[in-house]
Amino acid sequence: AIKELSSQLLAIDEPQRGVWLHALFFAVRQTHDSQFLTDLLARQPNLPPWCLTLIQTEAALLADPHATVPLALLSTVADAASPYISYYQIDRLIALGRYDNAMELLVAYGSRINPDEAAYHRLRIFSARGWTSLAEIEFDNILSQPLTARQITLICTFLIGQPNRALLSRYFVSFVRNRVPLS
Q: What is the dihedral of CA 79, 82, 87, 89, to 10 degrees?
């Protein structure tokens, strides 16, 4: 149901295309359904080129996870039509264990990536590499800022994906100290 809903909204909700692509990719990864993406490309060939490229890339990765990393993941997009492009590229490189490539891309995009998102990616890379000291420094840097809904979401996403009691405790203390409104 999520695959169908997100693919339909992808075609009509232009401002939120990145969100719908992310939901679609989540659903097809859970069901291991690269064919759905291939069929979608045939059904909706009028999507913007950046969407088509990401869908093709995801379909290729799902069809053969051990294939060579698609070039679409390895280079920056000069005039990115959506901030989701850089997020997708770095997220997939991290998931594929290509931490050096992910960090190189993160650096290459520079200020074109939201600072909160860049910190989240660095935190994931450092943690995945087992670089505990750097991960803790990055985590503390995130917590040193006033907590926004976006930061809270990114921190919770990180802690769900990579549980860590010590970091959770530090986050909880910061959350309580900042008196984040529960809305």
A: -60
